[in-house]
Every structure is written in C-alpha cells, then in structure tokens.
Amino acid sequence: MRLTPTDWRNLALSGMALAFAACLPWLFGSYALSIGVTIAMYTVLATSWALFSGPTHYISLATAAFFGVGTYVTGIGIEHLPYWTLLPIAGVIGAVLAALVGLATLRLSGVYFVIFTLGLAEFIRQVITWAQNVSGTKGIYVLTSITEAHIYWQLLGLAALVYLLGWAIGRSRLGFALRIIGDDEQVARHSGIHTARAKILLFLVPGSVAAITGAILAPRYVYIEPSLAFAPMLSFQVVIMALLGGTGRLWGPLVGVIPFTFLWEGVSITVPNQTTLLLGLSFLVIVYLLPKGFVGLFGTIRRRMGSEGLV
Amino acid sequence: MDIIITGFLLGGTYALIAMGLNLQYGMARIMNLANGEMLVAGGFAAFWFWTAAQVSPLLTVFVVAPVAFAANWLIYLVFLRPLVKRARSRGQLEVDSILTTFGLSFVSVGLMLAVFGGDYFSYSYLSFPVHILGDSYGANRVAAFASAVVICGALWLWLDRSRPGLTIRAIAVSPDSARLVGIDVRKMAALAFALGGAVTATGGALISTFLTLDASTGVMFTLKALIIVIMGGVGDVRGTIVAALALGILETFVATVIDPGLTLAAAYLLFVVILLVRPQGLFGRRSA
Amino acid sequence: MSATLSLRGVTKRFGGLVAVNAMDFDVMEHEVLGLIGPNGSGKSTTLNLISGALPVTSGAIALRGSPITQLPAQDIARRGIARTFQLVRLLPSMNVLENVMAGAVFGHRQRWGYEAEAVAQTMLEKVGLSGRGHMAVGQLTYIDTKRVELARVLAGEPRVVLLDEWLAGLNPTEMEVGVALIRALRDEGRTIILVEHVMDAIRSLCDRCVVMAAGAKIAEGTPADVLADPEVIRAYLGDDDA
How far apart are CA A281 and CA B246, in angstroms? Predict the structure, then answer.
C-alpha cells in the first residue's frame, strides 16, 4: 500500500524526535545519559513486548531469559569474534529460542505460556550457574572500549528498527491477522488464518530484540554473572511499563516507560527496599485503574471532551 | 531407596501446597500467582510462634488455617470478584487475574520484607533422626509428611463425600450447568478460593519445619505448585498427589546425584515434557 | 456430475456418546442442501465436523474429490468452505468493513489492500449494508450483525457456504429479508448447506434435505417428500402423535 500524507508526516516527526534524542550525550551530563540508556533500553524491550502481547493477550515473562542470553553472547563472543557480528548472532539465537518456546506453548492456553516463560529465565540461570560450578569459572569480564554514549546510540538505532518493524507489521497481512486473532481466535481460524504460525512468527520479534538488547548492554556491566544477566525483575518491569503505557498503539509503551523509569529511580534512591512493593502496586493500578494504559486514558478523555462539545 | 523415601516425604508436603492452588485454579477459576506468598506467610507464622512461645508448628496450623481462610476470602471479595464480574470472556479473566495476583504477590513480598527484613529464617523443631528401612530421616520431615497425608486425606474425603465438596467439584467440571441446578457459583468459588489459601498456608507452616524460607522464596513454590497442578491435571485431586510425589522424588534425585542448584531446572524440564506429551495432565482426558 | 462435498461414514464420539453416527451425503454444485432434524440430533455437530471446528472420530469428508477430513479449520477455510456461527461472532474491535475484509484477506481467494477493500464493499452491498462500512459492530441491530457475518463468509468467495441456523432469532419482518437474502445467494448459483429450524424457509429455499435424528440420517429427498415421511414426523413429534 502507498504511504498517505499522514504517514509521511508521522515518519518525519519520528525522524526528528530520533535526531533530537541522539543529541542527548552532547547536550547533558553523564547522569542524564545513564537515564537515557535506561529509557532507551526499556523502550526497546517494552515496545517489542507489546508488539506480541498486545494483539495476542499472551503475557510473556521471558524478557529476562532472552536478555540474559544476549549478554552471554557478548560476554563469551567478545574474546573470539569482532563486536559487530555479536549483535546479529544474539538476534538469531534469541529468535531460535523464541521459536522453540512458541512451538511448545503457543498452541495452549495463556496460563501455560506465563508459567513457561516465567520459568525459562530461572531454568537457563540455574543451568549456566551449574555449568560454571562444574567448569570452575565464575563470572565473565567484558572489557571493551565501548562507552555509555555508544551503547545509547546503538539502543536508539534498535528502537528505530523496532518502531519501523512494528509499523510495517501493522500494515501487513500478518498485522491484520493478529488483530483478528486478538478479537476472536475461532473466527480467525475459520477465516483461514494459521493462528499458531502467526503467533510464533510474532514472538520471534520480542525474543530476538531482547537478546540484541542484552548483547548491546553487556559492556556496560563489565562483569557478567547469571544472577545479574537473568534477573527476573526485568521481565516484570517490562510488562508493567508496556501495560502502563498501553499496548493498543505503537507509541503506547514509550508513554509508560518514561514516567515509570523516573518513578523507579526515585524509589530506588529514597527507599531502596521497597521496589518490590512498587512493582506490586503498579500491577494493581494497571488492572483496576488503567486497564488500557495511558493510551486508553487519553482516548477516554478525548471522547468525553468530544461528546461534551456536541452538547 | 534413600532418595525415594526423602523424595516421597518432600512430595507429601508439595501435594498439600499444590492442592491449595488446585482448589483455587480448578474450582474458583483463579490462577493465583500469589499462592507461594501465602505459603511463606504460613511459614512465618510457624516460625514466629515457635521462637516466641515454643508453640509446636503442628499446633500453629490450627491458628494459621482459619486466619488464612479469612484472609483469602477477603482477597477474593475485594480483588477478584470485581474481575470475575467485569470479565467478558474466560481469556480476559485469566489475563486480569494473572496480573492482579502477580501484583498481590509482589505487594506481600514487599510487606514481608518491610516487616521481617530480607533474612533467611529457620528454626530447629523435631530435628532428631528417625529410622525407616535402615536409613535415618529428620523427624520434622516425617511429621510434616504425616500431617500432610492426614490433611490431604481429609480434604479428599470432604470433596468426595460431603455435599459442599460435591458442589465444588460440580463447579470445577462445568460452572454453567452448576448454576442451572441451583448452585450459588459465586459463593462456592469464594469458598474454594479461601479453602485453597488455607491449605497452602498450612503446607507452608509444615514445610517451614525442615526448609529454610525467606520473604522472596514464594515465587519458587508458586512455580512448583503450578507445575504439579498442570502435570496432575487441573481440578484432579488424585493427579495432584501423584504429580507432587513424582516431583518430590525427581527433585531429591537431582539434588543428591547432580547438583542441589538444579532442582527448579529439573522441575521445569519435567513441565516441558508434560506440556509436549500430555498437556491435559497425567490422568486428564483429551478434550475435543 | 461429481459432488462438490461428500461425507462418507462420518462419525463423532464424545466419550461414550455418539453425537454423529455414520453420516453419508453429497452436496452437488449450485445446490442448496437443508440439514434438518429435532434439537440435539447432531446437525450443528455435523457442520462443526465439516468446517474442522471439531475433529472427526472416523469416516471421510472430501471437497471436490480431495480429502479434507483431518485438516485443521484454517486449511479447510482456505480450501473454500466458509461458515457462520450459531451465535453470531463478529470482531468487536473492528468496524463493519474490516470485519468483512477479514474474510476477503484470508479466505479461499486471498486478496490484499485496495482489492480486498473493494471485494468487502461489494459484499456489503450484496447483503444490504452498503455505506455502513465505517460503523462499529456494537451499533448494529441483530439482523445486521448476521448480515455482516454473512458478508465476511462470502468475501472469501468460498466453494461451499455453511449457514448454522442463520435465520434463528429473527422477527417476522427480518425473516422475510433474511429468506430473500439467502434466495438471492441461491439464484447466484452458490453451494450452500443450511442447518435450519424454520420450516417455511426450508420449503422455499432448499433443493434437497437431509434429516437427522439421534445422530443418524433418517431421510433424504426434496423438502416436500421428507416432510411428509412418517419416520421424519415421528422423529419430530414423538411416537405418540404419529
């Protein structure tokens, strides 16, 4: 399909926003840059998560697993391979892992999927820890000349890719099929849609994106160990940010990522032991107050203003 | 032999915990991911009573169970019934209840961290050996197992023979038909949920006699209980018991023969195999 | 002339219950076949077996000579068998036009973009909903939701259309509209299987009827013949009244 003037306008606006965001390392200090990295990372993770979970209503808690695999790709690979090959390798491994998870679970009900993905990170973590104990190694040092700003730019590039991909999927037959599946899976099947195949294909996106994100961030950690790379908290944070923003729009998760990152930073600094409580309360707020996220809230407000205008 | 008996003893307590979750998921139709926190809370209570007043955990159970019952009843009324009411489909209720119970799970971990701190807690109760078939086992494990057997048995008899038990099973099989024959499904679902919570908290009090717990271990037990429930079949008491014993033995085997750090990984692998081979559970019939 | 759709010994068991027992029948091209019988006789189950909503226990179903018995629902839909549902199922987050496009994009004849939209518009016109493509499905009247579902089914240009009690629940005025709509499809030469309770509609629409009772076929023939058959009357009314 051809691009409409609105499409061109949106593309131009997004390009300008991206260019502005790319200037951050020169404009502000190192603290702003580290917040920038965090926001860019969660934007990438939450947006790709929402691409899959938005239409399918499957809650994936596998982000930490893919992310951890990605950090290990860089951690192990940096000794043997040039850095630029590691990101695509992480992407491919993430996609393969996602395909396996999808094949095993996406034909079954959503509860199985949640448990399966929740257990996956823990499973890989235990296996790697065990392998390290057996081989006698501990963590891995990732020593590179990659700076915080480099990491930030790579994440921005990845974010741009994710948005483009999401936009392309939204306009494709796959995107249309997913909207139908999200509405009524039985109708989808009887209309000729291979529902399992469509879901598995789509699950490759968050899988490979999270693995690439992990690979990009590995140099920031300098020292990688399983409990850090596979921290289960990451999966939950991503779910909350995406749902808080709203999965109905491509830009929805971003609207959740920015305020939540600041909130999280604030709570971590002032009452560091209460981040778990914050996470729990956020879930309850989403379910009871913001079931469609900020995006849904904007929609309701706009509709209410509109109907008042008519009266 | 040693492994099988130790695994059997562990599996007995697992059965109790999973039975609690199965009542909540199979009968009340709520996938309660805060189930493990209820277990830890039961364990905390046992710990507290023992260290403060030397009250035997086997007696604490009689306090823990009614308190947990009331707490879960309240949780159901306040948090879950509104979701059941607003849900337009089973799928929506599932997503909502998963998110809500995750929220409740994190909130209770946060509260327990704030109140009790992040330390591990353990106490020694009945920590003398008992000899079975030539090997010795901790008396606390044997006592916990025996109590679990008694409670599981009572629960099974109640579900199988009593009128409320029959009603609850009817809801598990078909909530819509249950409504048609005059069963107050909403009330019975709340009852099943509260009962499930009480059973799990009891299991927590028992398990705390021989395992070390801390405020954030709940999710591990939730995961294990979920694996048992799915393996045994949702709403299936007999399947739950068999699956729990199998998991107990597998974990003990892996911990003794390979590495104690791999127990959850082993449970997870078992779960994957079940998903691929028999997604309807060990004794479940393949539905059309 | 060979049959468009044929069933041979098709059987469905639910545990110990035989819901459909050794059904045999053919549907010719351009034919409207009525599948009738008392409540619980297995008509809808038969439709679910043909469309792949339920797996067949034993027997064979073939579309234009090639077997479709074991295919999943989506492949059966792609081969060209499209259905409506007993309780109307629309896609609530989409407008009327998008609902119909779902059939055009993924059905038997797959189209995309402007072409799919054009097909969907044509189908909306055909069912009498032209100009209402932008409406939300929540705004529709009951018969209009049925029309949208029918348009979605037709948009894939299927070889066989399965209508599961499509006329049920309509008031007398709507019924006339509904019957006229199906008659128009019949006049276009579509191949249709109709599960229906409304006898007037069966008489005026069907070329042939298959009557089911307790999961088995008890009669087959023109509507006038089968409705006069004593065994059919007994199945509907019970032994005492026959």
Answer: 36
Higher-confidence position of A282 and B134: A282
Domain range for residue B94? 2-277
Cβ separation C89–A191 shorter than 8 A = no
With beta carbons less than 8 A apart as the criterion, state whether A144 and A91 touch.
no
pLDDT, mean of each 10-residue run, chain A (311 residues) = 77 84 81 90 94 88 94 90 91 94 80 86 88 81 83 92 92 91 89 91 94 93 86 90 87 89 87 83 86 82 65 38
Give the residue numbers spanning the domain of A112.
26-310
| Interface touch A192/C92, C-beta < 8 Å | no
Query: Is residue A235 included in any domain, yes or no?
Result: yes
What is the tens place of the pLDDT at every residue in C210-225?
Answer: 999 888 999 899 998 8
How far is the alpha carbon of B288 from chain C, nearest alpha carbon, in Å? 7
Q: Provide the pLDDT for residue B287.
A: 45
* CATH number, position A143: 1.10.3470
The stretch C11-28 carries a mean pLDDT of: 89
- When pLDDT is averaged across residues B93-122 and rounded to a whole number, the result is 84
Q: How large is the average pLDDT for residues B99-110? A: 90
Over residues C21-45, mean pLDDT? 90
Q: Which chains touch C (3 or more CB pairs under 8 A)?
A: A, B
Mean of the per-residue pLDDT values for chain B?
Answer: 82
C82 vs A contacts (CB less than 8 Å): 190-191
Sort out which chain B residues have CB atoms less than 8 A from A286's CB and list them. Answer: 99, 103
pLDDT band at C16 (very low <50, low <70, confident <90, very high): confident
Contacts of B262 in chain A (CB under 8 A): 126-127, 130
Q: Does A205 fall in a domain?
A: yes
Q: Is residue B222 part of a domain?
A: yes
Count how many domains chain A has: 1
Q: Which of residues 197-256 of A touch B (CB under 8 A)?
A: 232, 236, 243
Q: Across the interface, which of A119, A273, A280 has its CB nearest the CB of B268?
A: A119
B29 found inside a domain: yes
B102 assigned to some structural domain: yes
**C-chain residues within 8 Å CB-CB of A173?**
105-106, 112
One-character DSSP codes across chain B = -HHHHHHHHHHHHHHHHHHHHHIIIIIS----TTHHHHHHHHHHHHHHHHHHH---HHHHHHHHHHHHHHHHHHHIIIIIHHHHHH-SSHHHHHHHHHHHHHHHHHHHHHHHHHHH-S--B---SS-SEEEETTEEEEHHHHHHHHHHHHHHHHHHHHHHHSHHHHHHHHHHH-HHHHHHTT--HHHHHHHHHHHHHHHHHHHHHHHTTTS-B-TT-HHHHHHHHHHHHHHH-TT-HHHHHHHHHHHHHHHHHHHHHT-GGGHHHHHHHHHHHHHHH-TT-SSPPPP-
Q: How many CB atoms sit inside 10 A of residue A250's CB?
A: 21
In a domain, residue A21? The reply is no
The residue of chain A nearest to residue C76, with distances taken between CA atoms, is: A192
Residue range C143-175, pLDDT digits in tens:
899 999 999 999 988 999 999 988 888 888 888
B282 within some domain: no
pLDDT in tens, B211-258: 888 877 888 888 889 888 888 887 778 888 889 989 999 988 888 888
Looking at residue C84, the DSSP 8-state letter turns out to be -
Q: What is the pLDDT of residue B177?
A: 76
Q: Can you give the CATH number for the domain in which B253 is found?
A: 1.10.3470
Query: How far is C-alpha B25 from the chain's CA centre?
Result: 11
Per-residue confidence (pLDDT) for residue A142, from 0 to 100: 81
Domain total for chain B? 1
* C91 closest CB neighbour out of A187, A190, A195: A187
Topology of the domain covering C1-71+199-242: Rossmann fold (3.40.50)
Residue A1: what pLDDT?
53
